[in-house]
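Record 1 of the preview.
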Amino acid sequence: MLDVRSAARPPTVGAVSTARPVAVAALLGLTALAAPAAAEGSPTCSMKAARQAIRTTPAAAALRATLDGPFALIAQLWCRDVTRDGVDDMTVTVSGGGTAGVMGWAVFRTVGARRRLVLLRPDGQHFRIRLTGRSEIWEQYPVYRERDPGCCPTGGYENRRFRWDGDRFVVARRWRTTDAG
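->
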């Protein structure tokens, strides 16, 4: 059997010394390309960052109470520019971990190196959220009548479309439907 390792000629000292600087230079070039984004100081958009934003923002106390539940979790996270400033914002939904589904949601605007709470919807159950336009968010939740069990709302569904007006989110449209849509 032929030993390929012994048949291969080892690289010369000159070849090794020139190959490494080229590889290092290539890596440094890639690092330099990535550096401007980090230098801008934009905060990370991640599940961990969403939890931290909720837990450290005093105005988000009601949503924090849900997130602190024993089975609670960040249900959805969108890292997308919804405030039309060219910087990704963080839209996050929180589930209590039980049958009520998404119980609240919030939008944190990216301003420099910080997140600022610009929309908070902390109290509900079975929220459905969609980012529908460049700066629009559609919200739907069931309407429960007095004797409705948690599984079966009979009051239809309340829908709201929030739109960024350049300074804050406003309700652009509100309507009720008989079915989830």
